[in-house]
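Go through this pair.

…
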Amino acid sequence: MRGVEVAVQRLPHGADLPLPAYATDGAAGLDLMAALGSERLSIAPGDRARVPTGLAMAIPSGYEGQVRPRSGLAAREGLTVLNAPGTIDADYRGEVQVLLVNLGDRPVTIAHGDRIAQLVVAPVTRAVLAEVETLDGTVRGAGGFGSTGVSQRAGAQGETEREG
């Protein structure tokens, strides 16, 4: 299957790293690596760090790059992408950097070439907003965070019906 072509520029501090690649034929994301040179980066519990990849990209118009966590890092180390998914807009030409946060209970050290995130290139649909006086009603209505996960048993124990 032929995908969308994305122009990639290697920056000097990432020149020795391979280009991002799909780990398997069925993978949705390309692995992004840390471009740290001889330095190591330690992220303490609760801290965050902007990690360079040594790459700049020209995402085609009509697409975006979504920077997502790697599940293994999240499960083993508690390391995840803080603004997941991070967005690389089609008109951005600077270095791709990954904002990592350590949600674990011990420091995590990142070295040059470590896989730190994944990049999914996806189509973008642009919305056309239409201002109205009122919105149509739905079963859910204005029920917010967690409102669709309430069981019927919990509902019978004092959960009130929300207007829609």
User: Anything to note?
Assistant: The chain has a mean pLDDT of 90. Helices lie at 71-77, 152-156. The longest helix spans residues 71-77.
